[in-house]
């Protein structure tokens, strides 16, 4: 079966009959009726789907997330004007139960959604790391990164939830932080430490996602340990490359980057700066992505930002 329809093509009342990657699958209920709630994706975007009918409740248990399945249904708008796929067709359930499809070589690019400029982001963040003046700290940061840093998403359902999202978010965080240093006079801030902390603040997330099929799926580490603990454990593996004071500063930045929402509150200027830059990147990205799904001239509560937003005409 060829992919002939994409997420960007799905509108109100439009028939849906195509292949989609299933990122997530949950069992939900409404008015006492259970249904499978799926998150579908292809190279043009992400869309939710609600599958009703006999045996639909079994789907979340048997679906292999990160794999491609045939989906039939209809585009339908909810009360906020957001389009999702609705299906009560037995054919959809049968198609999913039959199992995921095997793609032909090269076909997987049709199902990987990422608006991030993967190569450009990788080169830019490496250039910024290269600007660290302290040789030991520069080597330390480089050693902490691997291919997963450039490929993993930064989150699920929130901000930067796509391939390359972690690198893009980290790049935005370090650029926001450095721009604040540049525009503020009379600041005595360790620029090298800000770069290192901003690049590594979410490094623990490389352990929180597994690449399954053609997508990334949160694993047990994501749910049971979380990325902050994993990040500190990870940088400790390279602690012999830097001084004890530098390691302590970086541990504090990682541990406190959630600000008042975390267990540790930032106490240094560098930690506060990384926290604010991190918040700015994650919040603005979620707002911008929510607005992209909001009809012009309308107000609605964004699913990612959880804030009421107005899309100006």
From TrEMBL:
InterPro entries per the UniProt record, alphabetical: HD/PDEase_dom, HD_domain, HDIG_dom, YhaM_exoribonuc/phosphodiest
Gene3D superfamilies on file: Hypothetical protein af1432
Protein name per UniProt: HD/PDEase domain-containing protein
Top-level lineage group: Archaea
Keyword Hydrolase set for record: yes
Claim: Transit peptide is one of the keywords in the record: no
Example GO biological process: rRNA 3'-end processing
HD/PDEase domain sequence ranges: 162-292
UniProt entry keywords in alphabetical sequence: Hydrolase
Source organism per UniProt: Methanocorpusculum parvum
Pfam families for this protein: HD
PANTHER family reported for this sequence: 3'-5' EXORIBONUCLEASE YHAM
GO molecular function: hydrolase activity
């Amino acid at each position: 079966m060829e992919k002939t329809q994409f997420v960007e093509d799905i509108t109100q009342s439009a028939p849906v009959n195509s292949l989609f990657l299933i990122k997530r699958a949950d069992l939900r209920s409404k008015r006492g009726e259970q249904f499978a709630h799926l998150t579908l994706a292809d190279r043009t975007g992400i869309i939710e789907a609600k599958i009703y009918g006999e045996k639909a409740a079994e789907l979340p248990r048997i679906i292999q997330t990160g794999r491609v399945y045939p989906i039939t249904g209809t585009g339908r708008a909810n009360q906020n004007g957001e389009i999702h796929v609705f299906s009560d067709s037995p054919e959809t359930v049968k198609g999913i139960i039959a199992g995921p499809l095997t793609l032909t070589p090269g076909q997987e690019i049709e199902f990987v959604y990422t608006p991030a400029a993967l190569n450009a982001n990788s080169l830019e963040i490496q250039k910024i790391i290269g600007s660290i003046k302290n040789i030991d700290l520069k080597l330390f940061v480089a050693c902490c990164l691997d291919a997963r840093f450039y490929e993993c998403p930064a989150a699920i359902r929130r901000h930067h939830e796509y391939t390359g999202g972690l690198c893009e978010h980290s790049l935005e965080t370090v650029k926001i932080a450095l721009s604040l240093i540049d525009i503020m006079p009379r600041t005595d801030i360790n620029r090298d430490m800000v770069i290192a902390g901003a690049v590594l603040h979410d490094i623990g997330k490389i352990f929180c996602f597994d690449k399954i099929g053609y997508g990334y799926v949160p694993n047990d580490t994501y749910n049971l340990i979380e990325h902050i603990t994993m990040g500190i454990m990870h940088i400790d593996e390279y602690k012999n490359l830097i001084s004890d004071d530098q390691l302590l500063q970086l541990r504090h930045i990682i541990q406190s980057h959630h600000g008042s929402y975390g267990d540790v509150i930032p106490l240094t200027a560098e930690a506060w700066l990384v926290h604010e830059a991190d918040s700015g990147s994650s919040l603005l990205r979620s707002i911008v992505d929510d607005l992209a799904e909001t009809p012009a001239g309308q107000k609605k509560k964004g699913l990612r930002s959880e804030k009421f937003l107005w899309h100006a005409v």
